[in-house]
Amino acid sequence: MLYMIGLGMGDEKDITLRGKKAIADSDAVFLEGYTSMLLKDRVGLATLHNKEIEVLGRQGVEQEADRILAATKQGNAAFLVVGDVFTATTHHDLYLRAKEQGIPVKVIPNAGVMNAISLTGLDLYKFGRTTTLVYPEKNYRPTSFYDVIVENKKRGLHTLCLLDIKMDEQRFMTVNEALKLLLEIAEEKNDNTITLHTHAVGVARLTGEDQKILYGPISELLIEDFGAPLHCVVIPGTLHEVEERMLKSW
After folding, report:
1. In angstroms, rounded to a whole number, what is the distance separating the alpha carbons of residues 250 and 246?
2. Which of 1, 67, 108, 201 supports an S-S bond with 234, CB 3.0-4.6 Å?
3. 3-state secondary structure of 127
């Protein structure tokens, strides 16, 4: 049996009871360690479950998936994902490979950023396409995420902007870096969808005990210190009265 288990977003205690039992029943436990991270130290995860947990990078999951599947030949294997299991498409690939090999798979969901973002007070039904802001690099400076924001804005929809993670470099894009990048692209495109006066929501350590959510014009958010990762940004669309009241509380 292959268990695919969502861990939630905060610390090791956010796992569900079903997920906890599945880990206890597993002979090999793997943790996907490149699309996100627990807000608290991973060591607590191994201690809580009294299990040796192997952390896998992108190559370990995408190119060496057969090693995870092979572990099911000796017993049960658990594949742990921070947040919800299927936020990253690479996890669908692992699921499909297991199915194709006749390996039983049980998915145990948990809270992820796509639903936890409702803590801002914005209506989940009014979110458009989610996008990811990535660090510009030499000879690589995509701007398609800006176009997603523009399209959502035209339709009155909110945009959840996930921010780049370079896990191997321990480099995590901040709210401030993300907003500066959006302003730069807006200037390049001569577009006024994003300006210093545009209101946005800066979010840090969502669901954590020290989560930080601030709403206001980008000019004010740029000078705030959002602290440790992980961060994300929301560009609101048309707001309902209740949404406005909720956002003002931040």
Report:
1. 7
2. 201
3. strand
The pTM assigned to this predicted structure is: 0.90
Q: What is the Cα–Cα distance from 135 to 18, expressed in whole angstroms? A: 37
Measured CA to CA, the distance from residue 37 to residue 59 in angstroms comes to 17
Interatomic CA distance for residues 62 and 139, integer angstroms? 25
Residue 20: exposure state from Cβ atoms within 10 A (0-12, 13-18, ≥19): middle
- Residue pair 63/69 in contact (Cβ under 8 Å)? The answer is no
Helix spans in 106-190 (H) = 113-116, 144-154, 175-189
* Greater pLDDT, 20 or 59: 20
Rounded CA separation 125/111 (Å): 17
Cα–Cα distance between 25 and 78 in angstroms, integer? Answer: 9
In this predicted model, what pLDDT tens digit does every residue of 166-192 receive, in sequence order?
887 889 999 999 999 999 999 999 999
Q: Which one-letter DSSP state was computed for residue 230?
A: P
The CA–CA distances, whole Å, from 237 to 14, 152, 157, 186 equal 31, 7, 4, 17
Lookup: tokens for 26:
């597993």
Place of tokens 């931040």: 250
Number of Cβ within a 10 Å radius of residue 26:
23
Asked whether the CA dihedral 49, 54, 56, 60 is positive or negative, the reply is negative
What are the chain's domains? 2-111 (3.40.1010.10), 114-248 (3.30.950.10)
E-state strands within 87-169 = 105-108, 131-133, 159-163, 165-166
